[in-house]
Design a protein that fits this description.
The structure is a homodimer of 111-residue chains. Helix content of chain A is 54%, strand content 11%. By secondary structure, chain A is mainly alpha-helical. The first copy, chain A, has a two-stranded antiparallel ribbon. Chain A is globular, with a radius of gyration of 17 Å. The structure holds a DNA duplex (30 and 30 nucleotides).
Chain lengths: 111, 111
Amino acid sequence: MAVSKREEFDQELVQIAEMGRAIAHPARVAILRAIAAKQGCVCGEIVDLLPLAQSTVSQHLKILKEVGLVKGEVEGPRSCYCIDWEILGKYSASFKQFLEMLPEHKISECC
Amino acid sequence: MAVSKREEFDQELVQIAEMGRAIAHPARVAILRAIAAKQGCVCGEIVDLLPLAQSTVSQHLKILKEVGLVKGEVEGPRSCYCIDWEILGKYSASFKQFLEMLPEHKISECC
DNA sequence: TCCTTCTATCGTATATCTACGATAAACGAT
DNA sequence: ATCGTTTATCGTAGATATACGATAGAAGGA
């Protein structure tokens, strides 16, 4: 019982929720910022920036890759992570649109 | 073991993550939109809009109230939910700022 | 008063997230 | 070929999230 019903919603809502899920942990926000700031994309230092074990950071990175915000490759002892700016742009556009659509009916105050 | 380390991050990051958590489920995105569209704030119809049980919707509403995006009161058989526009504005501002700060270093492509 | 309606909360079950250590896998250097 | 470095994955444990039915509580109407 209690199967998740995430997928029963409109694709648009699911997409916004995915964006939310991606940034729903401060570690992932920090990782995104770190990757964006490190234009060189050599990103072993992410682990040093965070109060988390290497394996935990790797899990957070995996989530970010699943959502699509981050793309990366590992070549042995080196790594290459970077923001997928296209995906990020898409997500943030639909998110901004959602935020700006909300107050359209902001007519009557209540409560 | 495995205590959450959410709170060990900068307050700024935690706040963005809270916003993310609030919209990390499509049901909550739908609820926010429904409340915003129903300027009258009589919101028993939310349950009818969603493929979820009333108690589940109530839980999602509780999360939105915890984060602060929604405020509401119940007066017996009537309800009054509405967006806290001030909080929403604060959150979305810091979120937009985060999004716009990210590509500042978008100099070198890689991967 | 009793009934209906609406919402919150409780209890419960399952799923997912978060976190760590241990280990594997890939590659450069020796 | 072996070692060291870097990252991913596995195994595991505890914490949250998700979902539902059952029930409680509050208020209006009969």
